[in-house]
Amino acid sequence: MQTILFKATERGKADYGWLKANYYFSFAQYHNPQKVHFGALRVLNDDIVAGGGGFPTHPHDNMEIVTIPHTGALAHKDSSGGNGIIKASDVQIMSAGSGVEHSEFNESKTEAVNLFQLWVFPKEKNITPRYDQRTFDITERKNKWQTVVSPIESDNALWINQDAKFSLATLLNGEALTYANTFTGNGVFLVVIKGSVTINEITLNSKDALGIYDTNSFDILATEDAELLAVEVPMEF
Predict the structure, then answer these.
(1) What's the CA gap between 41 and 119, in Å, rounded?
(2) Is residue 4 in some structural domain?
(3) pLDDT (average), residues 205-234
(4) 224 with 167, same domain?
């Protein structure tokens, strides 16, 4: 089992007034040659968008883009016809494919929205752009994994154009949970959204992350109530 630690305090930062961003990987003006991507996971941005703020229409292609709000609500519109409002307990995915333009704005004029946005390199290039979103029952992730993004139909999750899975869990203090890879050879980027856990004697606190590879499974112990995101991605792509 190999690991790469991403401390919350060591993330790249940017403050544009309307946007306060924290970058786990090189993005925009932040560049760290040691943290450009983790396997097929290219971007994980922890964004706080002020009331009335947002990203004007801009293009993407050949990227799987997943948005997970923590607080507030975000409005999305794209050139493929996709549009919607996502809030905490919702997950959104957009396959940029052969090319798409979209915008994202805080639905509120006064309250901030906090979200994770993640980009994954696709399995197949130049597919027809697509958009989907879903509301998930957060009670279904108590002390267990709830798969929210997956290419496997039986997972009943949002479809992704990659051998990748996104899973969420809420782990109570003192409880343990195992993550087992679905795809052989994949790695897992584990993010502590809130709380504190230990993995292989490594302590992770709120917004810390751990890249885990060269293993098919690992155990997590909550040292206080915790919310977790596990992003399983191919290490070779």
Answers:
(1) 6
(2) no
(3) 98
(4) yes
- State whether 80 and 146 are in the same domain: no
pTM above threshold 0.90: yes
Q: 233: part of which helix (H) or strand (E)?
A: strand 217-234
Strand 2-6 with 209-213, pairing: antiparallel
- 77: which strand partners? 83, 103
**What are φ and ψ of residue 236, in 5° steps?**
-115, 130
pLDDT at 231 over 80: yes
Enclosing H/E stretch for 55: strand 54-60
Percentage of the chain lying above the pLDDT 70 cut: 100
d(CA 56, CA 102): 8
Task: Choose one of 135, 155, 188: the last residue of a domain.
Answer: 135
Average pLDDT, the chain: 94
Length of the chain, please?
237
In three-state secondary structure terms, 173 is coil
Q: Is 63 helix (H, G, I), strand (E, B) or coil?
A: coil
Strand order in the sheet with 73-78: 54-60, 100-106, 73-78, 83-87
d(CA 199, CA 189): 12
